[in-house]
Design brief:
It is a single chain. This protein is an alpha/beta fold. It has two domains: 309 residues, Mur-like, catalytic domain (UDP-N-acetylmuramoyl-L-alanine:D-glutamate ligase, 3-Layer(aba) Sandwich), CATH 3.40.1190; 148 residues, Protein-Tyrosine Phosphatase, Chain A. It is built from 16 helices and 18 strands. The strands form three sheets. It has a nine-stranded mixed β-sheet with strand order 2-3-1-4-5-6-10-11-12, with helices on both faces. A six-stranded mixed β-sheet has the order 13-14-18-15-16-17. Helix 2 packs across helix 5, helix 4 crosses helix 10 and helix 6 packs parallel to helix 8. The longest helix has 24 residues. It is globular and about 70 Å long. The chain binds zinc ion (ZN). The site of zinc ion has 8 residues, from loops.
Amino acid sequence: MQMIQAIRASIAIVVSRWVATVLRWTGRAGTSLPGLVATRISPQLVHRLLRQLDTCVLVTGTNGKTTTTEYLHALLSQDADRWLVNRGGANLLQGLLAALLTVSDARGRLRIRRAVLEVDEATLPLIAQSAHPRLVVLTNVMRDQLDRYGEIDQTLALLNRGLSDPSVTLVANADDPLCAALAEGRMDTVLYGFSSEVATPGCPDGVRDGAFCLKCGAELTYAGYFYGQFGMYECGHCGFGRVEPHFTGRVSSCDGFRQLEVEEVARRTSIQYSVALGLSGLYNAYNLLAAVAAARTLGVAPDRLNEGVARFSPPIGRMQVFPGDPESVLALIKNPAGANSVLRALIQDPREMAVCFAINDQDADGRDVSWLWDVDVEDFVATVTCQRFYCAGTRAADMALRLAYAGVPRERVTVLAALDDVTGIACGGQVQVLYVLSTYTALHPLAERLPRRLGLRRMVSEEVHA
Ligand SMILES: [Zn+2]
């Protein structure tokens, strides 16, 4: 039996390499296809490879996985210390296998035996045993694509199964009551969260997935909140509440550069340090804080964190800035909580803006777009100075309807016939920035097209004057 499995594994490696070569020739490298082909031939191959890892860190959760993984990979890759990483959100079995195959020889032996891997919540229980992670980083638990995961209870059950080994160190978000409930009672937990100084007083209205105590079902009360269900929560019925984290973050500004100030408490002593924060939005500060907590737990010295962050390059479409006239900023949105955290970051931007929503409904986006109705669009359109709204993608009309229900006058909304038309948006008047908020499958095409908007307003005005 073992002999047959070894033969299948060898065939899978050869065929997947051949597929990878063809993809490189045709300029389509970087997909999970070699992994998918290899999984079909040898379903056990991914487990054989994972078992060879000496140190494995898994990053999971609803939002922020890709950015946190990239931050952590940058922080860990000190000197000649090489870590394998799966890029671009390839977080299902075939994506993990494709990444592992890039560092495997023809006989299935790994050349790099340390890995930081982003893992989808449903994939975690499938690989936890063979990967035997040293750390699992849990960013948050929020309502995601309904047709893939169902409601929160299902996600929590998957995570519980994935975390069934009690010896695994869990690095978890203390501000998220759902993460905290999963972490409670575990042998080894490292918690991170933000300082109450950063919190908004009171209780959030909008979407709050963890509104009820996971222990007893009573409604949680909040002394302050950050966003989503993150905050200073407490259950008045059973006493469950936010625990003071080991890593507490604050965001500050120094010479125009944003910094993440971290206070780390271990064995009753506390140290403080600051790390450069390249990306805007509190949700990105959370991603960096999670990565810092994990890197410190794995022994990275505080004075080496900044050189690590300098190696970080943001994943595609995470507040990715494209120069132009005006500049455009591309951000991924895929579920209510994630979209709300992006909208909050836009509210913080004092510039006059135009906003384009690119909403697709392919498998990777989630076929069900009813989540758009849970996004806090009303609050957003009432707060920002937005000149024009554009809707693109296969569900552009759904988004336009959503904006209409949020009270945006019809004449301020343009429905674009094709995704390509985003390139042609010529923001007139006083618009200083075009925000393009996109679901997953529109993200990569937009990242390719948006650089073409460079100098568009100038071009259009020259045409008008000519
Ligand atoms: Zn309770």
